Write a sequence for this structure.
């Protein structure tokens, strides 16, 4: 028998209702903030990700699902931001729409070692706002992320923010780190010793306790920020506070993708264990230009849907379904029953019946298992009188209803 690939997941019928609820809630909230949906291919030229995420990042170095054919190397998208900027430019959205607010829901692929909350195929719900560098947009994006969590009924999350500054500030921070680290280098973990050479900023958010202790002694704070970036960060923090959004400034938050600058943020939840990020995002002011477009500010974020569903949420509370289950006794009743079923469904009442010719007792059990709110019983007696017996499964009460009034009565 075939098995699914490690790190992938079958989302079975008992789970899909939570997925649909989270997706529907997200679409509703995105509409309130005037974000429109974009759907890009899940497969792109691999070099798109090398260029944008950074050739020394973990995702590009170790986690890309690559597909080689004769001339090209494609990749299953590890994230959507690069694809969306590619699409924004390819479809001239900067000319036709200018400032653009987009959202997306869909699968992403990373060749990671699977564990709780870490899959090889996982799903993002994300947003990208392209065309403005204003701090007010950073505030909107972070408040939108929080609004989504509130609507998913998730509490107990923490919002951490930081500013990486502009390209020059990032370079200054990297240089300062490179200068202060050498004497501590041998005490860093093996990964960080490599990072010191290729991607020194990533040492800041290494999860290794010893590395964290060393980084803490560097007292980074916001010293690397130029006055403009400092002012921008200040505006973002004030704006968030004005909206009553609780956040923590974390000078060690640098994020794992190279395209970020200025504001970065991460939303964590302690119930998730070691993979504790529910979602994350930030500004990527140089990405549009790096992909051949004009100089435009942009910011976005993405939540991991599997992780949203791992923490306590109230997503399923209001989704109790109403199902009518029809049991027919005898052949004549069966063909009449099919018509009744059709009539109910046309009137937008969820209805089903027994397709296995079960006994009355067996069919009642099946109705119960299916979560039916009402059971309709149609036998020879009912058929003669043009009625059905309607049983309310909660109270157990049963009564006869004329077939012609059935839809109205059930509604
Ligand atoms: P990211 O931090 O790589 O950012 O991913 C965002 C979220 O996706 C994470 O916080 C986590 O919840 C979820 N996630 C990531 N990898 C996995 C995995 N292997 N298994 C399960 N869930 C996972 C981005 O991808 C950026 N594109 C976000 C962004 C949008 N920044 C600007 N715009």
């Amino acid at each position: 028998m075939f098995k699914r690939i490690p790190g992938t997941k079958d989302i079975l019928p008992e789970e899909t209702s939570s997925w649909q609820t989270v997706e529907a809630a997200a679409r509703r909230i995105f509409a309130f903030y005037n974000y429109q949906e974009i759907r890009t291919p899940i497969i792109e030229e691999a070099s798109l990700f090398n260029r944008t995420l950074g050739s020394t990042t973990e995702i590009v170095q170790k986690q890309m699902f690559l597909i080689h054919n004769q001339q090209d190397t494609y990749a299953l998208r590890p994230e959507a931001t690069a694809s969306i900027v590619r699409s924004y430019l390819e479809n001239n959205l900067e000319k036709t729409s200018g400032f653009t607010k987009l959202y997306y829901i869909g699968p992403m692929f990373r060749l990671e070692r699977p564990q709780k909350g870490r899959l090889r195929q996982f799903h993002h719900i994300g947003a990208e706002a392209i065309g403005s560098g204003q701090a007010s947009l950073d505030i909107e994006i972070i408040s939108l992320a929080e609004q989504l969590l509130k609507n998913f009924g998730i509490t107990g999350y923490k919002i951490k923010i930081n500013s990486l500054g502009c390209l020059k500030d990032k370079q200054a921070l990297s240089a300062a780190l490179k200068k202060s680290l050498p004497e501590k280098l041998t005490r860093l973990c093996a990964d960080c010793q490599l990072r010191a050479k290729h991607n020194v900023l990533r040492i800041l958010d290494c999860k290794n306790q010893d590395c964290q202790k060393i980084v803490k002694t560097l007292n980074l704070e916001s010293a690397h920020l130029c006055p403009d970036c400092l002012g921008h960060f200040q505006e973002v923090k004030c704006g968030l506070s004005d909206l009553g959004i609780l956040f923590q400034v974390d000078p060690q938050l640098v994020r794992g993708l190279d395209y970020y600058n200025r504001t970065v943020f991460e939303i964590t939840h302690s119930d998730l264990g070691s993979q504790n990020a529910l979602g994350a995002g930030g500004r990527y002011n140089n990405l549009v230009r790096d992909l051949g477009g004009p100089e435009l500010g942009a910011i976005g974020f993405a939540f991991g849907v599997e992780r949203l569903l791992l923490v306590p949420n109230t997503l399923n509370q209001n989704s109790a379904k109403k199902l009518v289950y029809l049991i027919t006794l005898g052949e004549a009743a069966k063909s009449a029953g099919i018509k009744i079923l059709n009539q109910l469904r046309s009137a937008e009442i969820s209805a089903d019946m027994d397709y296995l010719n079960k006994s009355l007792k067996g069919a009642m059990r099946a109705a119960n298992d299916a979560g039916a709110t009402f059971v309709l019983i149609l036998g020879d007696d009912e058929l003669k009188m043009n009625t059905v017996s309607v049983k309310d499964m909660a109270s157990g009460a049963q009564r006869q209803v004329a077939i012609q009034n059935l839809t109205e009565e059930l509604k």
User: Anything to note?
Assistant: The radius of gyration is 28 Å. Residues 79, 81, 110, 112, 117-119, 122, 124, 126, 128, 277-282, 300-304, 306-307 surround histidyl-adenosine monophosphate (CB under 6 Å).
